[in-house]
Design a protein that fits this description.
Oligomer: single chain
Radius of gyration: 17 Å
CATH topology of the largest domain: Rossmann fold
CATH class of the largest domain: Alpha Beta
Amino acid sequence: MPAAAELVRNLPAPVVETHGRFLVVRDDLLYGGSKMRFLPFLVEDAEELVFGGPAEGGAPLALAIIGRMTGRRVSLFYARRSRLHPRQVLARENGARLIGVAPGYMTNVQAKARAYAAATGASFLPLGFDMPAAEQPFVAAMRRVRREVGEVDQVWCCAGSGMLARCLGRAFPDAVVHAVAVGLASRHEAQAFGANVKLHACAYRFDQQCRAAAPFPCCPNYDRKAWDVAQREAKGRALFWNVMG
């Protein structure tokens, strides 16, 4: 397979558009979303990739796409459901094997995925792919955006695992990064994100969709929740990082 650095280097540069008073990073235009900018660095030595997450999440789909690109087997663990989410369908179309877990609470889904990986020697990836090897290439992509747009007063994004917000804090050290906490509230400890990251509570559970309008494809379970808050609270020259459509 091509080396990780080559795969990432061959990705299209982040597209930045102006929507109203916001600069918007349109990583929804990148098939698989923002995680494609670092995932190749996490899978180089693996023959099989294992992940457990929510059906609505973009991470499993991104992993399935990387698996197809690199010839890796991908096993995705989800809460068992009677009807697949569209992202699960896309993951399966990209060659991933889907495994339903009951009862479907996330700790059990994660436990089953970890146990399978340990038993088979596969590589288990944590929620959000929050791993040290991901940070450098992700921050590099963000600094590329900063060089293009110049300094901004605020950066807005969603916080799931927290890696996106933390990396944005490193890439835009002179801006305040406003992160709307979506997902596991227990992971959202401000001191772990960086001094220039401010967390905002979210009015929705992760599995609830936000119906607020957005002028670009924006995930109703994730990015759109941050976009909704940013519309009301952003000040100055603001950038919004849209992870996936």
